[in-house]
Amino acid sequence: MIYFIGDKPSKHNIDPKVAFVGTQSYKTLLNWIYRMNLNINDITLYNVDSFVNQLQQNKLELDEDDQVVALGKEAAIILNKHIIPHLKIPHPSGLNRKLNDTEFVNGFLKECKVYVLQKW
Length: 120
Fold this sequence. Notes:
This protein is an alpha/beta fold and 120 residues long. The chain has helices spanning 24-35, 48-56, 73-81, 102-117, and strands spanning 2-6, 43-47, 67-71, 87-89. The protein has four helices and four strands; from the N terminus they run βαβαβαβα.
């Protein structure tokens, strides 16, 4: 499983328990997943607090083949605090002007694809 972890639920989320769905960031993230040629059935989206709580309550278990990707600095900080190995990439927010740089986006998408497929 590949876990994409965001920071906090957006007020635009269709359901606050489901990360990103209903937001512009979700559309961007889906585009990135498509561009990396990842199988959507192998992906789960979480808000970081929910992800950590699920792990702590043993409702979720990370297998050795699972990969965790932090979407943005805030999610990465919390994952680091809980010693959860992950790759940090930019948050897919339209407010992030770096995402207008095609070379920048292509670079971290390539790195992310290598990271998530290294154990597959």
